[in-house]
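Q: My hope is that you can spare some time for a protein that puzzles me. Underneath my words sits a plain record pairing an amino acid chain with its backbone structure tokens. Those tokens are not coordinates but codes from a learned vocabulary of shapes. Thank you; the sequence and its tokens follow:
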Amino acid sequence: MCEILDPGQCYKIREAVIKFEDIGGFTEVKKRLEEMVSLPLKYPEAFKKADLRPRNGILMWGPPKTSMRTLAEAAASDANAMYISVEASRIIENEHQITHLYKDATKIAPCVIFINEIEVLAPRREAQSGLLEPPRKIAPPNTTRRFLREIDKSAKNDKVITIGGSNRPDIIDPALLRNGRLDRKIYVPAPDYYDRLEILRLSLKKIPLAEDASPEVISEITENYSSSDLISLPREATLIAIKENGKTFEKVSLRHFKEAMKRIPPSLSPELISRYEEIYKEECKHRYMY
């Protein structure tokens, strides 16, 4: 059985420690997570009184490195719930691991399960035939069937919510997104100027900055940077400044950030961001993506 508490195994069970205020930007995403995750888990009696059915599952989708895992943990923390994080590719070899995962979640409920790269667990089968570019790994059909059964069973438990993270919503089996499963979707976009500014303000809080290296200036020059890139950039710039100045180090200048940007180029591109935005606009026309 996979009773996993240690890193490097099938999944990790722990108390959620990250809070929404620890994460810069993504204001709309946080609001949606509060409505779909935090409120139902914190106030189940209110939902019953109002005859509102809590959402059993949510799909978070968008470009790579947009902090979906961190946002999911913050939602669990806000709900005072336990948190299970799992890579889909780690549980596809043995379908029984999925059953153990949901049994553990039920035991420790209220609980939020975050499954990264959920398309691996429930792919469109056309992805195997070459009609679509497949992910690196694909769950065998029996594993997908077991996963869908566990999702259906968990729908009877208002204290367990599954959040699937995906950069490839185009290859997810529509059966996973039907009513009662992951039937609500949250688009997690690439950070815009204001998102980048908020992320940088948090990341730069303890770093001594020269006058030319304000968060506003750095936000202007980091277009196409993901949230993960923006969190890494200040550390790299600071290391460059310390290496250059040694004992005389005092502040990190804009020049150091520009040098750091050569080491940490943007993970995203205008073309990639545009592609995700087009998918979002198209899906919104059909009310599939919220």
Notes: The first helix runs from residue 27 to 42. The chain is about 45% helix and 10% strand. Residues 1-8, 286-290 have pLDDT under 50 and may be disordered.
